[in-house]
Each structure stands twice: as C-alpha cells, then as structure tokens.
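Retro notes (design track)

What went well: tokenization of the new backbones is finally stable.
What didn't: we kept losing track of which sequence belonged to which structure.
Fix going forward: every design gets posted as structure first, then sequence, in one message. First example under the new rule, 323 residues:
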C-alpha cells in the first residue's frame, strides 16, 4: 500500500508582532482578559504589501529546503485558505509560479480552519491512487484583512501566517505500523453556517466582508466534534488513543484545546500548543504547529500524531499519521 509520508515541514510568520496590549487603546479589553479566555498573548499581522500567496511561498520554500527536495520533484500544490489574494486565480497557482514550478498542477481547498486537514486528505488520496508522488500541502491565511476592529469577540483572536508540509509516496505494508498518513475523518454540517461566517462575498455583497462568530456555540460544537472525529480517525487507523504520542490541534483557543485533550484522555504534555504566540491562523494553524514542533525536535520517528480542526461551515475533521 502506498502511504503519504511527511518529508519536510516549514512555516512563515510576518515580521509584525502584535501583543495583546495593542488592542487596549482600541477596544474595551485588556491583555489579562484576552489571555484568560483564549490563551493568546500575541499574533502576527501581514504587512500592507504582503498577500496570502507571499506567505505561502515562504513557507513552501522552507518545507522544500527541510525535505531536501527541489521544486522540480513536486507533482502538485494544494493550498488551504479562506483569504485568497483574488477571487481567482487560486493562491496555489500563484505559489506554483512563485516557486518557479512549471509542471504538475495546483489548486485551493476552502474549509476555513479545517482546510489543512481537508487538503491533507486530498493529497493522501492522490498519492494512494498513484496520481502524484510528491505533494506540497500549504495552509496560508491573512485573516487580519477580514477583521471588524470594533468587535472584541473576534478581532483579538486571529493572526496571519503560513505552514507547509512535503508529502511523499512510500510503499507500506498496509498495517498501522506503516509510516505516513494512516487514517482520515472528514465531516461538515451546513445547518450551522451562521455560527461562524464572513458577511461578504462575490455573489452576495460584492465585498470581502468581515468575520462574524457566535463564540459560545462554536466552543460547544468544537469540543464535542473535535474529540469525536479524533476518536473515529484513531479507530480507523487500527489504533487506540493511548497509543497517540502527540495531539496537534487547530490552534483556536487554549480552553478548547484543553477540553478536547481531556475528552481524549491525553495529558497536556502530549499536546502541541502554539496559540499563545500565533493566535488563530485558521487553515495555517496546524501546519504552523507541526513545523514549530518539528523544528524543536519534539517528534520522533515512529510516533503517532493526530491533527484535528473545526471551522466555518461547520466543517471538521482529523488525520492520524505515523511520523
């Protein structure tokens, strides 16, 4: 059986760092209020001349360098994003051009904060089917461009950034002992659209719009659905949760992450946490967390990782892989 193995990781964060106290002169909020409710201490904002594709290109280059793979060896580029440079063409094609890649194909995936999980599932399916040998999977966002700066319930939560992984086809035995992606679980339910959405779009207002969220309801759905999808994916992989070495969750809110880990009976020592420094970077949060933890040497060969995310739609899912 062909497996999709992570060969390299990389990330990019814009130079501008915004601490919580930046919001204190603009909103009725404080650093302590933000930290206590979200675990966020700072986030990065893209410069005025930076686009989502610029962030994605930088992360992709870092991942390729880490993998020791040239762009000429990449068959496909998949970018997960909800904040594209333009309505079209896709961010992925602009990343492809920015990397000097003149072969293969590129496209975007839009599942908001769950986008990277959906993109990984796409790449895994293509590798299993023999359609690609190596796929560059990127999560890149500039959520600072769709914030309502008068809404303290949302604008303090989000940041900009990008993360990337290089997936490569490797022959496995078809058992849970294989390296690479072992199982995927994807879900969505459009009846919850109004819980988390952007109030603009090409066919509605003709504007980019601003992010709107019913925070309490999103929290409730997130904890339940993230734990459920992780359990299903682990079971599909032929494993049990006590065999999980690392949980790499969507970095939305430390309280959601802690509650999900508790439902999975995982100690926080087994959870990758980057939300304090990055805020919620939507589709970029999992690849950012993977890259940072990899850079820190946390992951050891053979360890089991579970990545999980939920976003607007609602859309949610998880991926189980052996490092």
């Amino acid at each position: 059986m062909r497996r999709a193995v992570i060969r390299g990781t990389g990330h990019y964060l814009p130079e501008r760092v915004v601490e919580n106290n930046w919001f204190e002169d603009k909103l009725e909020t404080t650093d302590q209020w933000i930290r206590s409710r979200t675990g966020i201490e700072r986030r990065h904002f893209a410069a005025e001349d930076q686009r989502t594709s610029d962030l994605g290109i930088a992360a992709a280059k870092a991942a390729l360098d880490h993998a020791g793979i040239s762009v000429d060896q990449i068959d496909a580029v998949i970018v997960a994003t909800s904040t594209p440079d333009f309505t079209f063409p896709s961010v992925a094609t602009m990343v492809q051009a920015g990397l000097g890649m003149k072969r293969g194909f590129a496209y975007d995936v839009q599942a908001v904060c769950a986008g990277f999980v959906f993109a990984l599932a796409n790449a895994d399916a293509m590798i299993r089917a023999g359609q690609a040998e190596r796929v560059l999977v990127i999560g890149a966002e500039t959520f600072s461009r769709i914030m309502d700066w008068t809404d303290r319930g949302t604008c303090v939560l989000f940041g900009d950034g990008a993360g990337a992984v290089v997936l490569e086809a490797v022959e496995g035995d078809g058992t849970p002992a294989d390296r690479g992606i072992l199982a995927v679980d994807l879900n969505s339910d459009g009846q919850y659209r109004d819980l988390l959405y952007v109030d603009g779009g090409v066919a509605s207002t003709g504007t980019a719009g601003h992010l709107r969220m019913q925070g309490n309801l999103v929290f409730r759905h997130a904890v339940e659905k993230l734990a459920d999808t992780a359990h299903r994916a682990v079971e599909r992989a032929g494993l049990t949760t006590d065999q999980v070495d690392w949980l790499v969750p969507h970095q939305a809110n430390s309280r959601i992450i802690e509650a999900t880990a508790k439902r999975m009976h995982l100690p926080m020592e087994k959870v990758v946490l980057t939300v304090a420094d990055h805020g919620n970077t939507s589709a970029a949060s999992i690849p950012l967390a993977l890259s940072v933890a990899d850079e820190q040497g946390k992951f050891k060969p053979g360890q089991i990782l579970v990545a999980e995310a939920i976003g607007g739609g609602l859309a949610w899912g998880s991926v189980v892989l052996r490092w």
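Added context from the reviewer: The chain has a mean pLDDT of 97.
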